């Protein structure tokens, strides 16, 4: 079988408004199956992850896909198969990670410091998705055509 591999556009530039919110460290857009579509980090960060490398953003993308799949399974178990997970939040000693649905087949993840205004961050994530959700969408990839 052969197929065409198309390079996905990097959507990191769309995330800059999120990384300018006080307390936001990193942001990533991922496809439903865990592929990084783009990422951005706030400027002048210090600490263990001062800026996401492509490899770190790809790992975060895979983790985001796993978290959203877990959320989907939990929602289906508790509320029925038609229940859709819209947002997830993970709290750690070092901050929060928020995940939200960002269009067809895509999710948006944001990592913050512990003192970030999580309500403001979630609101701005929703505004960004509403504003540019069509660009954040990731259509399913075609299966390779048989020769």
UniProtKB/TrEMBL annotation:
Protein name, entry field: Roadblock/LC7 domain-containing protein
UniProt domain Roadblock/LAMTOR2: residue ranges: 12-112
Protein origin, superkingdom: Bacteria
Matching Pfam families: Robl_LC7
InterPro entries recorded: Mycobact_SerProt_Inhib_Rv3364c, Roadblock/LAMTOR2_dom
């Amino acid at each position: 079988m052969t197929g065409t591999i198309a390079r996905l556009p990097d959507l990191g530039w769309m995330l800059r408004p999120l990384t300018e919110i006080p307390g936001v460290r990193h942001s990533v857009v991922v496809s439903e199956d865990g592929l990084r579509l783009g990422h951005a980090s706030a400027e002048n960060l210090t600490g263990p992850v001062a800026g996401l490398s492509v490899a770190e953003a790809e790992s975060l993308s895979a983790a985001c896909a796993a978290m959203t799949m877990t959320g989907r399974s939990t929602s289906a178990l508790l509320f029925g198969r038609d229940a859709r997970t819209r947002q997830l939040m993970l709290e750690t000693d070092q901050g929060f990670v928020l995940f939200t649905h960002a269009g067809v087949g895509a999710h948006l993840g944001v990592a913050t410091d512990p003192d970030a205004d999580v309500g403001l961050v979630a609101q701005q994530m929703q505004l960004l998705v509403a504003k540019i959700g069509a660009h954040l969408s990731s259509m399913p990839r075609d299966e390779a055509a048989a020769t």
